[in-house]
Design goal:
The complex is a heterodimer of chains A (about 800) and B (about 160). Chain A has about 800 residues and is an alpha+beta fold. Chain A is built from 20 helices and 31 strands. In chain A, helix 15 links the parallel strand 20 and strand 21. The longest helix of chain A is centred in the last third of the chain and has 28 residues. The radius of gyration of chain B is 16 Å and the shape is globular. The longest helix of chain B is centred in the C-terminal third of the chain and has 25 residues. Chain B has 2 domains: about 70 residues, Roll (Ubiquitin-like (UB roll)); about 80 residues, [2Fe-2S]-binding domain (DNA polymerase, domain 1), CATH 1.10.150. The complex binds FE2/S2 (inorganic) cluster (FES) (2 copies).
Chain lengths: ~800, ~160
């Protein structure tokens, strides 16, 4: 059943609308909580007067940051690397939308009304809204003073000294070879600065949780992607044992990385313990928009290249805007290592920064820092090709990682990631030709490359992009229980959020156990019963949890063999497992089913556990070492049409190239590729969080913030998947396609227009402005720049 | 107090003054297949069929629904929980991921197929453009809708022949 297109195991509940999302849960006596949020981007909370709210009908409790700070039963500060966040702002609010107080009432309406009655006196402080502002001398500091670190990552702890009393969250440095010598060797140097904006996850089910506190134990039903970590945070905040905090997750209405950090659970838990009533905290759509998002970025790359296209030097400053709280930013900025892209570069110098600003806390987001660097490095490759007068495909093929090559981190990529094959394949699918062929006559006048200026013509272009993505450095744990009837329970904390984890993990378990799929049930997370798992993210679950499950099943298989040896009076070495039974090799008549073995053993069930360890380590000074247990490639080929009159970009075709290893379930692979590609397309063309000069988000709704609809789906969408037959080695796909999409589209737009957009997204306004600049500058010969700035120099540069 | 027919059953309810049909269906009537994603008529997750027409239940005031006949995803299955052909086609093609949007798509597709029993790729894209899927399952939805349409035509032909 590995490789079979099995429908989702919970398809019936999904298609009948009966599947349980956390938002469906109501408990008897449950209170509803609503959050009061800061209207200021940066403000000291001087005084909160909740008396009117407390007197309002139905109100049971009001909590403020000061209440949290004053409660000896709480340790409110938490965070995965730096403990800089509290469930409610204590003393200071740091962005417009920062939770300041919360009301719990008998009904949701009552809670909503009572929130309005809370009076807060603020002292407004100067604020910073972007990377430049945050790093300017004398910039207001979001988190001055001593930082409280979580100490489990020594490499992160080691880089923190010196950052206190700055807005720098963290720094990652990569030093490889000799950058200056590399640039001295280069014939051409290309330098560009690229930017990406904040983007929202927009899970259709917003963040929500219900907490219930009974008999000294906490139970939380949540929409979180990281239940085990959430349980640990809540236990820390409420000073409880992890064993007494139980987090239950059924299935999510979308996550995409935005549901990794606990946003509702600590508040629900604190209120539940205070009121001794179950409490629900659910975010509205507008609140969802200010609760988590993608890191805006600014990335400057200077590349040194030889005339034949060999990359010899790479220098990059990578800035990720982490917003008001650090969350996973200290770890995420390590993705600066991938600013080279999937290419061999001997001399590298990268400084990657995470920066605090008075905007929403940037969280994990599908692609985890790679989409930002990919936007830069893949346009940079085309800019280099342009400077050399070289075919961008040939430039990529010349430099792309091949088996045995070293990546920027110095690690040898032994595995064949099939870049050359996938690049050629995508090029073929989009009809890549160099130099670009003239456009089809029916598409109007002009050619594909930089003509048609000011004519109002529709121009077409093609683009390619290649990216490399690692995965998270966490091990995985699973437990399996073989029952007396021969059926198998798999206990894991992997979260089903639509990616098909329950189905795919069941396929893996059934395969390893030689059982039919119907004989296997994979649990949903319940931290009182399922083993720890860091998070369902980073495209890691099928591979790492799959391996942990296989190890657990193997342990049970060994127990079955040992038991059957005595039950059959045979030597263990003579036994093998076939189709749910233990058989004496060569005498198929002498066999015992799993059910017979377990029943005869009088143990009722056999239990096995499996752990899949992961080792990564990067040197603090050089950033060299092993950054990921696995590397995933993705290629995108794009074909676009640009309306030069309106600036509108239409994506006509996307062709994705991936290396999934083995597809456990091709349907889910296809869906993940399709979904991640459309995420990329939305970010390429229109998705952007826009703040006004006061730091207020101007588009926190699905009217002003657009996501891809049916009308945005390219007419032609294809995917090439390179598989290793007969293996069950897996490369994750959940995020992998995404980072390649925006730069491929931008490269296609640049080919169509002859000018390059360096800032996402490619909105009609931005594209039109560029067309106008191009047309105005045509007389002077200016070309290829945007507001972010560009320069090309070289002994024989052709630009 | 208003009267509604919900999935074939007469119901009497007393909505609060600002209560939307969405809130009423999910709240008092416990129909969790009706879902809110945007709350402003942009996404189609809350789509139900009211007197034969698709509506965004998030934009519909419950108090104004007196006498309406409303169908939700809960009404699509047969008496013993059998899936409708449309539902089965969505399952066969796995035309969903998180499936939060799925009930809305099913209701909108039912209306589309009632008007156009053989929609082209293009007609499906435009006909369902009011329903968003953040997981991006769109191309599988096209497959499912065309498959369901084909099944319905085969059935209709068979019925004509036997009649
Ligand atoms: S929730 Fe009604 S249209 Fe989006
Ligand atoms: S399947 Fe998740 S929103 Fe459509």
């Amino acid at each position: 059943m590995i490789g079979e297109r099995v429908p989702m195991v919970d398809a019936y509940e999904r298609i009948t609308g009966t599947i349980d999302y956390a938002q469906n849960l109501t408990l008897p006596g449950m209170l509803y909580a609503r959050i009061l949020r800061s209207p200021h981007a940066h403000a000291r909370v001087i005084r909160v007067d909740a008396s009117k709210a407390l007197d309002a009908p139905g109100v049971v409790a009001v909590l403020t940051g000061a209440d949290l700070a004053a409660d000896p039963g709480l340790e409110p500060w938490f965070g995965p690397f730096i403990k800089d966040r509290a469930p409610l702002a204590i003393d200071k609010a740091r962005y417009v939308g920062d939770p300041v107080a919360i009301v719990a009432a008998e009904t949701d309406d009552q809670a909503r009304d009572a929130v309005e009655l809370i009076e807060v006196e603020y002292e407004v402080l100067p604020a910073v809204f972007d990377i430049e502002g945050a790093l300017a001398p004398g910039a207001p500091l979001l988190h001055p003073g001593k930082r409280h670190l979580e100490s489990f990552r020594p490499d992160i702890v080691a880089r923190q000294p010196g950052l206190e009393d700055t807005n720098v969250i963290h720094v990652y440095k990569l030093r490889r070879g000799d950058m200056e010598a590399g640039f001295a060797e280069a014939d051409v140097v290309v330098e560009r600065t690229y930017t990406t904006p904040g983007v929202a996850h927009v899970p259709f089910e917003t963040h929500n949780a219900v907490a219930d506190y009974k008999g000294g134990k906490m139970t939380i039903w949540s929409s979180i992607q990281a239940p085990s970590s959430c349980g640990a945070y809540v236990a820390g905040i409420l000073r409880m044992n992890i064993s007494d905090v139980r987090v239950i997750v059924s299935t999510l209405g979308g996550g995409y990385g935005g549901k990794i950090d606990p946003m509702c659970e600590p508040l629900a838990a604190i209120l539940a313990r205070r009121t001794r009533r179950p409490v629900r905290v659910s975010l509205t759509r507008a609140e969802e928009f200010v609760t988590a998002g993608k890191h805006p970025s600014r990335i400057r790359i200077r590349s040194g290249v030889k005339r034949d296209g060999t990359l010899v030097a790479h220098e990059a400053d990578v800035y990720y805007d982490g917003g008001s709280y650090s969350l996973n930013t200290p770890e995420k900025i390590y993705r600066g290592y991938a600013s080279t892209g999937p290419y061999r570069v001997p001399n590298i110098h990268v400084d990657s920064y995470g920066v605090y600003t008075n905007t929403l806390p940037a969280s994990a987001f599908r692609g985890y820092g790679i989409p930002q660097v990919a936007w830069a490095h893949e346009q940079q490759m085309d800019a280099i090709a342009e400077a050399l007068g070289m075919d961008p495909l040939a430039l990529r093929l010349k430099n792309v990682l091949k088996p045995g090559d070293q990546f920027s981190t110095g690690e040898t990529i032994a595995e064949d990631l099939h870049y050359s094959e996938l690049l050629r394949d995508a090029a073929e699918h989009i009809g890549w030709a160099w130099p670009p062929a003239p456009r089809a006559p029916d598409a109007g006048p002009g050619t594909g490359a930089g003509t048609g200026a000011g004519t109002g013509a529709k121009v077409r272009g093609k683009g390619l992009a290649a990216i490399i993505k690692g995965t998270a450095s966490y091990g995985a744990n699973a437990v399996v229980k073989l029952n007396a009837d021969g059926s198998l329970n798999v206990l894991t904390s992997t979260v089903e959020m639509g990616q098909g984890a329950l189905t795919v993990l069941a396929q893996i378990a059934a395969h390893e156990a030689t059982l039919p799929l119907s004989g296997v049930r994979v649990s949903t997370p319940d931290t009182a019963n399922t083993p720890f798992d860091q998070m369902t993210a980073a495209s890691r679950s099928t591979n790492f949890m799959g391996r942990a499950i296989r190890r657990a099943v193997k342990s049970v298989k060994q127990q079955l063999i040992d038991l059957a040896a005595s039950q059959l009076e045979a030597a263990a070495g003579d036994l093998e497992i076939q189709d749910g039974a233990v058989v004496v090799k060569g005498s198929p008549g002498r066999r015992l089913t799993f059910a017979q073995i377990v029943t005869t053993s009088k143990m009722g069930s056999l239990v096995g556990s499996g752990h899949e360890p992961v080792k990564v380590r990067l040197d603090v000074e050089t950033g060299q070492g092993v950054a990921s247990p696995q590397w995933h490639p993705a290629i995108c080929g794009a074909q676009v049409e640009v309306d030069e009159e309106t600036g509108k970009v239409t994506v006509l075709q996307l062709h994705m190239g991936l290396y999934p290893g083995r597809m456990i379930n091709p349907i889910h692979c296809e869906l993940q590729v399709l979904g991640a590609s459309l995420f990329g397309l939305g970010q390429a063309l229109f998705e952007e969080l826009v703040w006004d000069e006061q730091g207020v988000l101007t588009n926190p709704n699905l009217s002003d913030y657009m996501i891809p609809s049916f009308l945005d789906v390219p007419r032609t969408f294809g995917q090439t998947m390179i598989e290793i037959p007969d293996s069950i080695d897996v490369h994750g796909l959940g995020e992998t396609p995404l980072p390649a999409v925006a730069p491929a589209i931008a490269n296609a737009v640049a080919q169509a227009l002859g000018v390059r957009v360096l800032d996402l997204p490619l909105t009609p306004e931005r594209v039109l402005r560029l067309i106008h600049e191009r047309d105005r500058g045509a007389a002077g010969g200016g070309r290829g720049a945007s507001a972010s700035g560009a320069s090309t120099s070289g002994k024989e540069a052709s630009a | 107090m208003i009267q509604l027919t919900i999935n074939g059953r007469a119901r009497q309810v007393s909505p609060r003054s600002h209560e939307t049909l969405l809130e009423l269906l999910r709240g008092e009537l416990g129909l969790m297949g009706v879902r809110e994603a945007c709350g402003i008529g942009m996404c189609g997750a809350c789509t139900v069929v009211a007197d034969g027409k698709i509506v965004s239940s998030c934009l519909t005031l419950a108090g104004l629904c007196d006498g309406l006949t409303v169908e939700t995803v809960e009404g699509l299955t047969g008496p013993n929980g059998e899936l409708s052909d449309l539902q089965q086609a969505f399952v066969d093609h796995t035309a969903f991921q998180c499936s939060y949007c799925t009930p809305g798509f099913l209701m909108a597709t039912g209306a589309l197929l009632a008007e156009n029993p053989d929609p082209s790729d293009d007609e499906i894209r435009h006909g369902l453009a009011g329903n968003l899927c953040r997981c991006g399952s769109y191309l599988k939805i096209i497959d499912a809708v065309q498959d369901a349409a084909a099944r319905a035509r085969v059935k209709a032909d068979a019925e004509r022949e036997s009649a």
